[in-house]
Specification:
The chain has 14 helices and 13 strands. With 503 residues, it is α+β, with helices and mostly antiparallel strands. Strand 6 and strand 7 form a beta hairpin.
């Protein structure tokens, strides 16, 4: 056998360097697979999406986790701040944008920032969201003839895979050219699971329509290079959340059932109906209904014994807390956000947890929401506004990048102790480590709007003669300069003799 080991060592090397690469008893039942980024979701995305939606519908913790991410990543909306150098043009762009935001929804249910929250929620729950740009007619009376429509991921068929005669290929409902670029999306006219209830089901709703790629925004979080479809954010917590929900419900039912039995009694004539129990069974024993204070009928010869149901024990709360921590880690949120339990936190611990979570939210905001959703919509809106003549933008075709320059400002964070945060920010500004514009933007506001409002408030207060202690201009009383008076001679000192003429 020595020669066999030597040959094996020469061909395959020696003992595996990594424990995880071994094939011993500890990894014998470990069935591993290594599919590609596309194949990993091609056969499991529909099941993952269905289970994720089911948990969000009926599981309070799954719904709380999704709502926590949406509330922190979107909040009241990620707002644009035009970076055009000309002040008049910049103000005109901002005014038209705010006017258009109210009419941005193609369904007229919310505004543009509500669509951001809707698309983010659809992405978290289903792994991805589809946002279609809808150009309207001039007679529709919109500030800019453009509206947004949010669609769920089911509109994009996962099973559509074919090759076209022009050399393009369709993979998971997405059409790619020979260079691997997305050129079109093949969408169902209606949700495939709505059937005849869908407003677009006049033709069955199962036929597909080809939508060019520049008219559709595919919103998802890429986790692997080459990934073309999104993964539900609850994928790693589905099994644990489902079983944890079942365990908690079973524990509740057990305690409820045990509490209904107050005790057991014995009677000499089992055939008599004394307590309104049901019909006696084959053994001549009738059971009373399970209600609070119920006494169970037993056979003759047995004594009464009151029920003493076992408690859940002291380990129940700690066990649930540990499992919730695992679920929160799988979802990328904190334990406190998932459960609402703040009994074991202090200022330092909750601030450390919030900093880590908000770091993840910032990565989601700038890497996914702003890049994939906000910027394409802003560019399409600017193009349409320039074509309509709604904005005075001379030379737009030549200066397109200049006019489309924008800065997206998320909603500001609210801290546990605002006084400490504001004092730290004031010290950073005075030390030259932060500008006022950056500090104002950190709270989700436009610095120019804030300065304009402050100037307006100060002017109105001065005109009305109002003085507030919040106005820093009145914190220090200006010193009145004292006029210099000529010095008077001291009467005690002898006067200097006058100059005598010289002879």
């Amino acid at each position: 056998m020595g020669w066999l080991k030597r040959i094996s060592r020469r061909m395959f090397g020696g003992t595996p360097v990594y424990d995880g690469a071994g094939h011993g008893r500890r990894t014998l039942a470990w069935a591993v697979s290594n599919p590609g980024a596309v194949a990993a979701l091609a056969y499991s995305q529909e099941s993952l999406r269905a289970k994720s939606r089911d948990l969000v519908r009926r599981n309070a913790w799954a719904a709380a986790g999704v709502e926590a991410f949406v509330a922190n990543a979107i909040g009241t909306g990620i707002k644009p701040q035009s970076m055009v150098a000309d002040a008049a043009q910049r103000e005109a762009i901002q005014r038209l944008w705010w006017d258009w935001c109210e009419h941005a929804d193609a369904s007229s249910l919310t505004d543009f920032y509500g669509l951001q929250a809707l698309a983010c929620r659809a992405m978290l729950e289903g792994g991805e969201a589809l946002v279609r740009l809808r150009w309207r007619r001039p007679e529709d009376g919109l500030p800019v003839a453009l509206q947004i429509q949010v669609l769920e991921a089911e509109h994009l068929p996962l099973s559509m895979n074919r090759e076209l005669i022009n050399g393009n290929v369709i993979r998971a409902g997405i059409e790619f050219d020979r260079l691997g670029r997305r050129v079109a999306y093949h969408l169902y006219r209606s949700h495939p699971n709505d059937g005849s209830l869908s407003p677009m089901s006049s033709s069955g709703g199962i036929d597909t329509v080809r939508v060019p790629a520049d008219e559709l925004i595919h919103l998802f979080r890429p986790l692997r290079p080459g990934q073309i479809r999104g993964e539900p954010w609850l994928a790693r917590a589905l099994v644990k959340l489902n079983e944890l929900d079942q365990y908690d419900d079973a524990e509740l039912v057990r305690k409820k059932t045990a509490a209904m039995f107050a005790g057991f009694i014995t009677r000499m004539s089992p055939e008599d109906n004394l307590l309104g129990e049901g019909v006696a069974d084959a053994n001549a024993v009738a059971l009373a209904g399970l209600e609070p204070g119920t006494l169970q009928i037993l056979e003759p010869g047995e004594d009464i014994k009151f029920s003493a149901p076992a408690d859940v024990g002291s380990s129940y709360a700690e066990f649930m807390r540990q499992q919730f921590r695992a679920v929160a880690a799988a979802m990328g949120i904190t334990y406190e956000m998932l459960t609402g339990d703040l009994t074991q936190v202090n200022y330092s611990s909750i601030r450390a947890g919030l900093l880590e979570f908000r770091r993840r939210c910032e990565a989601l905001q700038h890497g996914v929401i702003v890049h994939q959703l906000c910027r394409p919509i802003w560019r399409a809106w600017m193009d349409q506004a320039a074509l309509e003549g709604a904005l005075p933008l001379p030379g737009y075709s030549r200066r397109q990048r200049e006019y489309q320059s924008v800065r997206w400002i998320p909603q500001g964070w609210q801290w546990v102790d605002p006084q400490k945060e504001f004092n730290a920010m004031k010290l950073a500004i005075r030390a030259g480590l932060m500008s006022r514009s950056e500090a104002i933007s950190a709270y989700g506001y436009d610095a120019e709007d804030v300065d304009r409002e402050i100037a307006t408030d100060n002017q109105r207060a001065d005109e009305l003669g109002l003085v507030f202690d919040s106005d820093p201009r009145h914190d220090k009383v200006p010193s009145v300069p004292v006029a210099e008076t000529p010095a008077r001679p001291d009467p005690a000192d002898p006067a200097e003799p006058a100059d005598q003429p010289t002879e």
